[in-house]
Structure formats: C-alpha cells, structure tokens
Amino acid sequence: MTDSGTFQSYMYGDINIDPYEIVAFQRDIGCDVGTILDIFGTPDQTKKQAKKGIDITIERAKKSINIKDSMKLACPVQGSIYPDLRTKCAQELGELNADFFPIGGVVPLMENQRYSDLIQCIIAAKKGLPPGKPVHLFGAGHPLIFPMAVALGCDFFDSSAYVKYAQDDRLIFYWGTEKIDELTELPCSCPICSHYSISEIKNQEKSSRINLIAKHNLYVSFEEIRKIRNAISNGNLWEMVERRSHSNPHLLSAMKLLQSKDIKNYLEKYEPISKKKALFYTGTQTLHRPIVHRSQQRVQSCFSQINKTIIEFEETKKPYSQTYSKQIQRIRKKNPLFSIIVKSPLGPVPIELDETYPFAQSVIPIDPLVEQNEYLKQIYHSFYKDATVVNWRNISSLSTISSSDNEYEDFDIRRIRYVADYQFGKGAGDILLKGKIRFVKSKKTGKIRNIYSDDKHVLSMRASDGFFTLKIEGGRLLHDSFLSPLIRVIVFDDAVSFIREGKSVFAKFIKDADPGLRPFDECLIVDETDSFLGVGRCLLNRAEMLSFSSGVGVKTRESNNI
Ligand SMILES: [Zn+2]
C-alpha cells in the first residue's frame, strides 16, 4: 500500500503534486492499494473550509477511480471535526467503486489526545460507509487506542509512531508511553526486553538504542492486535475497551460519549445476540455496553406493564429462579400473573429470562449499584411506570386470587413464552405455543431442551446462552403469522435451489432482510415472493448482508422441503 503525499504536504508544507499523476504513478509501480490525493482536513478548520476540502476530495476520488485499473484504491474520508460532513463525505465516497476507506485528518486529534473528537469522527465516517468495505484509521500507531478503534469498526492501522517514539527514547505500552530515563525496570517480556537489561539499553549508542526501542514498540503493538483478535473471537472486545480506557483519563472521559442513546442504538445493530464468554463488569460504563443496552430496550418493550403488580427481588446468586425458587412458588400461588423482577445492575430482569444471555452469563459485584446510579434509576423508573412494586418480603399484604385462575400457566411454559418474545419479538411466544405443548428437559441440568407443539419439534433451547434454536416447524409457525419482513432474510430467485439443498446463503444472494436482525439471530429464509425456504442463523445484520459481496450471510440450518 502507498500513500499519496497528502499527509506529507500537511506535515512539511506545500508539495506540488498533481492529484492524478500520483495515482497513475502508484498504479504504474505496481501497488496493490494506492491512495488518492485527498485534502487533509485539520481540526481548526471552519465548517466552510472543511466542506470545500471534502468537495475536492470527492471530485478527485471520482476521477482517480477511472485511472486505477486493477489497483485497489483507498479514498480517505475527511470532514475535519464535523460529524455531518464526515458522514456526507463517507456516503459519497461509499457510492463510488472504491475498495478501501481510510479515515483521514485524525493525527492531530490523536496527538492532542482529543479522543472524544476521534470517536465522533470514526462513528460519523462508519455511519456513511458501506459496512462490507475495509476501514483504515490513518496514522493510528499507539496501542492505547487500538481496542476502541476496532470496536468502532476500524480494520487497519498504519503509523511510524513506533520509530518516532523510539527516536525520542520513549517506549510504547498498551497503557501509554514511558521515557526510558524514567524507568527503573523494563515492564515487558518481548524479545528485546527479555534479552537486554534496562541499563544495557540506556547505554547503547543512539542509533542502536533507537533500533531496540523501535523493535520493542512494534512487539507491543502487535501483541495488542493479537489480544484484540482474541477478544473479537471470544466476544469480549467491549470489555477490553472498558479496561483499557482506565489507563488514560482522556480516553476514560471520551468513553462518556458511548453512553449517548444515539451511539448505543447505532453500535447495537452490529452486536451479536450472545457471546462465548460471560459478561464481566468493569465499572459503570458496562451498563452502557451495546449488548446491555439491547437487553434493556427489549425488556422494556416486551415486558413493561405486563402486570400492574411487580414483585421485586434483589440481585443474588445465579440462576435467580433457583436461588429464589421457594419464594417464587409462594408468589405464584398467590397470583401466577404477577410480574417477578430481579433488580439487577443490568436493568430489570423478568424471572423468566434468568437463564438468558447476558443475565445468566454475567459476573457483576453484588452491591447497591442500582440505588446509586442515576442512569439505572431512570431505566427502572420507565419500566415500572405506574405499577405497584412490592418487595418479595412483603407479599403477605397482597390478596390471593381464586384457585381456578391459579392454574393459568405453568412456569416453564411462561419461560418459553418470555424467551421467545425477547428473542423473536413480541407475540412470538403466543404463535409458537398455540398448539398442544410438550417439552423435554435435560436429565442432567433440569433445564428445558426441546419443545414440541402438536408433536412437531418447534424449538430447542441452547444451554450456552438460554436462547432458542429455531427448528423448521417453528419457522413455519412464525412465517405464517409474522408479516414480511419480520425475522426474514429474502434471497434472490437464483439462490433458491441451493437453499432447498441445505446450502448456506451467501451475502451476494441476499435481496433484503429484516432490519431488526442481528448477527447470530435465528431467521427465516424466504424467496422474493415470501415462500418459506428454511431456517438459519444470521452471521451479519441487514446492512452488512446487503453490503458484503463475498462470504456467508446466513448459515442454513434446515430447509423446507414441502
Ligand atoms: Zn519490550
């Protein structure tokens, strides 16, 4: 990959380069990825200046694409610190036949630790760019910001920071940089720090000292990248972001931006529905993690005001329904329709969801967090509204309803209904449970496993995250009752025969999908006329399905052969 000279002009003053000659030059020397000569938008620009800069950048991008031939072309998103300009620039570049999208003009923000502005620039650019194309954070070379940048959707980094810091006798660590003179030990086990003592490095000639420190800086940077990849695969990248943000007060302060509802709504769309690893609490920022935001939203929309009487339990050992089993029985004998809620720091947890991710699979200190946190107080306030909230110790004050009503619904059936609504949307439970219901429990754990409606296997409950796997017969029920495009992935006609054979759905064969689907959600696969083809598991959300031109969008689980 080559750069075009834009950053060099910014750093070292005016350099006379023809914007198209430099693209042709990169092409002719055989670059895999060349870069257009964009206009560097500095943070001190007025909006008018920034607008002029992006107009020229977009114009140059359009013309450069015509001469790129087979070289991949990087078109940097500019727009200074104005989020609307960043998004506009990203949208217009995204519509072109470009291959690679750097976010440019951010080095001065990073140099001055303006991380809030940096986060806004990244999110604004990502909102406008096609999610299937790679994004490069230009000039990001400090591991301190790698986890955050990746969590926001950056795929590539480049920087000469490792050698620039080395020239200044500074060692990079994931928590910041340290002057070698201020260190008494090397707090690192990379090959350099394992081989040399700190005094040996200090006593080197300048050039070999730079060389050693630069190598250390690279080892540390790549170690952090590998940790990020692990975190992505384990599903705990946000946890890593939160932990890392505690290394630097500027970064910690910038994290507050991620508490805004707009940004949480945006990030939530890309968040898988469950993770391999339990959710670990790192501090109050955890309450704003995209997956927690989603669970709060869904609980609010599905289960608020289900019953005007709410019996409240304190956070306790999980699973809640086992710890509180006797008390729950007593409450259900009084009235099985009462809402039973555990006052968790993740927000109100209906007792029926206590085996579902992230409520069951989370590790949070049991302390009076809810009472102390203004944000949580609001969450509870809007969930409870005008309901009567009674602590479980005080239920003797409530009247008991008659015994015929008392047989209303088995607790297991109620659990199935709640999880179905939480997972597939309100009303799914009623649809899936309308026949004669029978279920099989695990002999080992006593948990619900397979659910049959009129002797047809409709759902299986996963032990790992407490969500359902949708079977073909369950898919048929939801397809009959949920209108298009709810929980559907719509495929082009030429993919239909492959799906009937049980093959997975490639993204390029996807015509449209429910915007409510999230990565790893269960879905219905249908053709353009809404004929039911099968059930599967999404690997992407709608925006990604429509943007990716390669790769699998949905893993088909069962096809409909009727
Ligand atoms: Zn080292």
Radius of gyration: 27 Å
Bound molecules: zinc ion
Largest sheet: spatial strand order: 19-23-22-21-18-20
Residue-averaged pLDDT: 94
The parts where pLDDT drops under 50 for at least 5 residues are none
Number of helices: 25
**How would you sum up the global shape?**
globular
Question: Could you tell me the number of beta strands?
Answer: 23
Largest sheet: 6 strands, mixed
- Overall helicity: 40-55%
Kindly estimate the percentage of residues that lie in beta strands according to DSSP. 15-25%
Structural class: alpha/beta
Q: Can you walk me through this structure?
A:
By secondary structure, the protein is α/β, with parallel strands linked by helices. It contains 25 helices and 23 strands. It has a 6-stranded mixed beta sheet with strand order 19-23-22-21-18-20. Strand 21 (522-526) and strand 22 form a beta hairpin. Helix 4 packs parallel to helix 6, helix 8 (161-167) runs antiparallel to helix 11 (206-234) and helix 14 packs across helix 15. The longest helix has 29 residues, at 206-234. It is globular. The two termini are 52 Å apart. The relative contact order is 0.06. The model has no long low-confidence stretch (mean pLDDT 94). Zinc ion binds at residues 188, 190, 192-193, 216, 219.
What's the short story on this structure?
The chain contains 25 helices and 23 strands. It has 562 residues and is α/β, with parallel strands linked by helices. The two termini are 52 Å apart.
